[in-house]
Amino acid sequence: MAAIFSFSSNISHLNCQNYLLIQQPTNPRRSLLRTRCAGENPPSNSATEPENALLKVAWNASELLGIATSFFRSPNNAEAGEVALELARDASGLVDRAAIVKTIKEDFERSYFVTGNLTLDAYEDDCEFADPASSFKGLRRFKRNCTNFGSLLERSNMKLMKWEDFEDKGIGHWRFSCVLSFPWKPILSASGYTEYFFDPQSGKVCRHVEHWNVPKMVLLKQIFRPSRRLR
């Protein structure tokens, strides 16, 4: 969740949606509607093109800011929070689903969204990470963004509210708030949920898709709004 520092775009479910040939009553010609498959981003009407462009700029700038601040951290802290875990596998090499879910819940207790303290073995190395501002692939990049974002916080609070299991994924519903250590002490506060899609071959998480229950621009505006005690 690295807030604006690690958002990515909303992504559709993996399940392909097949469309049938439709016969128009006033037109004998049949039209074939295309199939929308896994990984294709659905159109979003929640933000205009200028707003989306602004969010993209903010995301890129914030990631660069996080990288810059990482140079001032102690080298010992840079790799802190790596959780090593040898996950049990069955005869086919598939990782036990219950073990993956258990590690995700434990990572929430470590506030992995803002600490980077997550169980790397639960994810594919090229796992896709997506949220309302952008998307990218790479477990190490996600960990770096989370760690960098955490270094910019004065305090934070994160809680897993509910977990749901489905055939191809799990969904974690969460609440999050934090105070950024900027001079105007902005407060970020939101709720949402994250979809964890499991790779059918390895059993590990191959897509990590965040959804926020607030409009994209509201999140961005929170960063520039001074806290009440400074007004």
Number of helices: 7
Oligomerization status of the protein chains:
single chain
Largest sheet strand order:
6-5-10-9-8-7
The helix-strand sequence is HEEHHEHHEEEHEEEEH
Overall body shape: elongated
The amount of beta strand, in percent, is 25-35%
What is the distance, rounded to the nearest whole angstrom, between the alpha carbons of the first and last residues? Answer: 28 Å
The profile of the biggest β sheet is: 6 strands, mixed
- The low-pLDDT segments are 2-46, 75-81
Number of strands: 10
Q: Give the structural class.
A: alpha+beta
Helix content: 25-40%
Q: Over the alpha carbons, how many angstroms does the gyration radius reach? A: 20 Å
Task: Provide the residue-averaged pLDDT.
Answer: 74
What would you say this structure looks like, in words?
By secondary structure, the chain is α+β, with helices and mostly antiparallel strands. The chain has seven helices and ten strands. Strands 6-5-10-9-8-7 form a six-stranded mixed sheet. Strands 1-2 form a two-stranded antiparallel sheet. Helix 2 packs across helix 6. The longest helix has 22 residues. The chain is elongated, with a radius of gyration of 20 Å.
